């Protein structure tokens, strides 16, 4: 019985890892299909071991990818709030924040900053140099923070 519980725990961890990998492979439909199939097999194996629990939200896939027998066993668990936790994005949609972030990180932008700093130093305009650097730094931090805290599919 103890080995069965250990296997169930390992399979539950496996579900979490599969869901995480599924979310990370957003632009690769072939890999997503393989992960969904493996996910469904893992849930089926859990049922074979006598598992009768619910999968945590961090380990779930969107409802259309979940095994039908799981959705039928837990109909009250699915609600619009759960389905809204995964935001999808059109791959062809232009993401301006990412483009701006690339420009801010681009080495030529840093070279322009150094040239501007040199010119300001020649004219003894240190305040404008500091202001330019501060604006650049704030923009870089803000866009980076926004990029890493937005919802991922």
Task: Give the arrangement of secondary structure elements.
Elements: H1 2-24, H2 29-48, H3 68-73, H4 80-83, H5 96-105, H6 107-122, H7 126-149
Helical fraction: 55-70%
Oligomer state of the chains in this structure: single chain
Distance between the amino and carboxyl termini:
38 Å
How do the helices and strands follow one another from N- to C-terminus? HHHHHHH
Number of domains: 2
The number of distinct helices, counting runs of at least 4 residues, comes to 7
Overall mean pLDDT score? 73
- Name the beta content range: under 5%
Q: How is the biggest beta sheet arranged? A: none
The secondary-structure class comes to mainly alpha
Q: What is the count of β-strands?
A: 0
- Gross morphology is rod-shaped
Uncertain parts: 80-87
Radius of gyration using CA atoms only: 24 Å
Characterize the structure shown.
The structure is a single chain. With 153 residues, the chain is mainly α. The protein folds into two domains: 2-83, no CATH class; 96-149. Helix content is 67%, strand content 0%. The chain is built from seven helices and no strands. The chain has helices at residues 2-24, 29-48, 68-73, 80-83, 96-105, 107-122, 126-149. Helix 1 packs antiparallel against helix 2 and helix 6 (107-122) packs antiparallel against helix 7 (126-149). The longest helix is centred in the C-terminal third of the chain and has 24 residues, at 126-149. The radius of gyration is 24 Å and the shape is rod-shaped. The two termini are 38 Å apart.
């Amino acid at each position: 019985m103890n080995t069965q519980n250990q296997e169930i725990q390992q399979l539950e961890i496996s579900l979490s890892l599969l869901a995480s990998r599924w979310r990370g492979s957003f632009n690769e439909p072939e890999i997503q299909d393989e992960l969904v199939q493996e996910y469904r097999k893992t849930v089926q194996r859990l049922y074979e071991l006598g598992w009768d629990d619910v999968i945590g939200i961090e380990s779930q896939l969107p409802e259309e990818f979940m095994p039908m027998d799981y959705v039928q066993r837990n109909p009250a668990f699915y609600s619009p709030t759960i389905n809204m936790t995964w935001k999808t994005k059109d791959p062809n949609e232009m993401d301006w924040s990412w483009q701006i972030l690339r420009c801010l990180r681009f080495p030529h932008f840093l070279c322009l900053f150094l040239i501007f700093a040199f010119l300001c130093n020649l004219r003894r305009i240190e305040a404008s140099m500091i202001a330019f650097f501060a604006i650049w730094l704030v923009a870089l931090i803000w866009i980076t923070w926004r990029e890493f805290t937005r919802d991922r599919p």
